[in-house]
């Protein structure tokens, strides 16, 4: 029997959502969105504004924005966690999700979207939010990545 795979993602602008949808199809996986209780607006993610919500969250590592609902990872063996790279790391919302679940006997693979940065895509900076998980280094995925490329990537992972 194959492993049960879930693709989860946080997407403030839709870019990561589109990649996650193609990844789920390529991997034969279920998909769930990491939804913030308070949705992010365009002004919230304006990285040039030091007072924007994303900028304030980045400055305060301890912040954990609330989830709109939990995601049941219980039936899954492998969970892909996708996010946009904000200052070369995952948005705090991703840590909220990771810290709200029991990751014992689960494998996590990250994927990140970014126009240019690749630092932070491997997910290493998130390990402390789910220390019980088995982590497989993720990668940055271009917004226009093809489903065939995603299928090759997934097939090459040691899941």
TrEMBL record:
A molecular-function term among this protein's GO annotations? FMN binding
| Residues annotated as domain Flavodoxin-like | 5-159
Q: Which Pfam families match?
A: Flavodoxin_4 (PF12682)
The superkingdom of the source organism is Bacteria
Query: Can you say what this protein is called?
Result: Flavodoxin
State the species of origin: Bifidobacterium reuteri
């Amino acid at each position: 029997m194959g492993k049960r795979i879930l693709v989860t993602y946080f997407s403030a602008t839709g870019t990561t959502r589109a990649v996650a949808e193609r990844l789920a199809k390529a991997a034969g996986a279920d998909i769930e969105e990491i939804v913030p209780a308070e949705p992010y607006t365009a002004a919230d993610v304006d990285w040039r504004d030091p007072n924007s919500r994303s900028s304030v969250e980045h400055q305060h590592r301890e912040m954990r924005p609330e989830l709109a609902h939990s995601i049941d990872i219980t039936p899954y063996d492998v969970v892909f966690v996708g996010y946009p790279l904000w200052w070369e790391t995952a948005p705090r919302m991703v840590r909220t999700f990771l810290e709200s679940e029991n990751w014992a006997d689960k494998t996590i693979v990250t994927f990140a979207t970014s126009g240019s940065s690749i630092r932070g895509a491997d997910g290493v900076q998130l390990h402390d939010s789910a220390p019980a998980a088995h982590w497989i280094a993720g990668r940055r995925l271009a917004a226009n990545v093809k489903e065939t490329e995603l299928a090759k990537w997934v097939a090459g992972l040691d899941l």
